[in-house]
Amino acid sequence: MSGQVGLLPVRMVSLDNLIVESATHALEDQSQDGSMIPGFNGPYHDPETPVRNTAHWMISFLKAYEITGEDRFRFGAERAAYYLQSEIARPQGFTFHHRDTNRKDACNGLIGQAWTIEALAQASTDLELPDLRELAEEVFLLHDFDNALGLWKIREINGKTLGFDVTFNHQLWFAAAGSMLAMNSLIDDQLSVFLDRLPMNLGLYKNGLVQHPILPKLNSGMSFGLRTKRLVAAAVQGNWSRQRDRVSMTEKAVGYHAFNLYAFAILSQRYPDYDAWSSDLMKSMISYAKSSDYLETLEGNRYGYSYNSPGFEIAYAIICLPYLFGEDPEGQASEWVGRQLVRCYDFETSQMRLNTEDPVNHAARIYEATRLPNLDVPIVSTGGSL
């Protein structure tokens, strides 16, 4: 189906079809051990192991199997699950090995583990393999949780505890992944504390943009003593100095704003009665996401369309929290998906590899679209015919 928006040619595409086509091409890249080709973490240029992309593609294979019923996708997901259970992926029996660099930890903080736990939890349900859920729960609970702060500490692949992960989206995504295991009472208890402490740990700029580092509010009426002082010191010493790195932190905040909203959307599905989904904090975050300022600032942001996938992420937030976005949620979601695809999806190779410095990783990020309904997505040409 095709038409025109103003003078620009437009065609409608099925999101489910794109996911199936992308998964089909990805199957060709799967190794015999079930692993997928690793990237280098986009603008961070960290050499990665296959664990991250194997987890992402496993979710896409599961979605393609759900759509088509074709066994090749189920087998691809099973091979990926086999790899993630292997000693190669978890070489010392603690956390998953995500990156190879002398400058940073090998587990990729909480976010690396969140991505793997997310995939294992999904596959455990879809493939009816309880061992995958048990593995996900085991790794989640390896991470020490501070009940006073409502935050988790990093666990390195050798079992060493490295301290708090001071990046907000890492903590949030670890919670979102854990919410897929919330039938475990130990995990559910931790998530309840995390959600209760959110107003203390979440920092917003005046326009509603989520600040990148964890910034605990010391005037919250609660006393945390030395623990809080150490966390704040880590936030400053860990290259988060707003005086020294203000532009970089703001740029990251813009690029990760939708990534945060996507994780909030996941949590909203697991904890639908939580008061935060209609709080002033959430309304402020959504208001910024709907603003022309956000749309304009997102263009050219190296952590935006070309690294994260804000088109998929905002779309999922709209589907899960429609009362905060206004009328026609599916129409709004389709527009956001279209913004992502027209910038980054290569319709010739059926992969999300355009306009990114890390095409291997970015292609795998299509998995974020698997939670969306089968939207009819408008693809607007920036010039010429489609």
Written overview of the protein:
The chain has one domain (2-380): Glycosyltransferase. The protein is 51% helix and 7% strand. It has helices at residues 15-27, 51-68, 71-84, 109-126, 130-141, 168-179, 185-201, 225-240, 246-270, 280-289, 292-298, 310-320, 329-344, 359-364, and strands spanning 2-5, 8-14, 145-146, 151-155, 161-164, 376-380. The strands form two sheets. A three-stranded antiparallel beta sheet has the order 1-2-6. The protein has a three-stranded antiparallel beta sheet with strand order 3-4-5, with no helix packed on it. Helix 6 (168-179) runs parallel beside helix 9 (246-270). It is globular, with a radius of gyration of 20 Å. The relative contact order is 0.13.
Uncertain residue ranges: 1-7, 236-244
With helices defined by DSSP (H or I, 4 residues minimum), what is the helix count?
A: 14
Total number of beta strands = 6
Beta-strand percentage range? 5-15%
Search tags:
mainly alpha, Glycosyltransferase, three-stranded antiparallel beta sheet, 51% helix, disordered N terminus
In short:
With 386 residues, this protein is mainly alpha-helical.
Topology at a glance:
Elements: E1 2-5, E2 8-14, H1 15-27, H2 51-68, H3 71-84, H4 109-126, H5 130-141, E3 145-146, E4 151-155, E5 161-164, H6 168-179, H7 185-201, H8 225-240, H9 246-270, H10 280-289, H11 292-298, H12 310-320, H13 329-344, H14 359-364, E6 376-380
Antiparallel strand pairs: 1-2, 2-6, 3-4, 4-5
Helix pairs in contact: 1-2, 2-3, 2-4, 4-5, 4-6, 6-7, 6-9, 9-12, 12-13
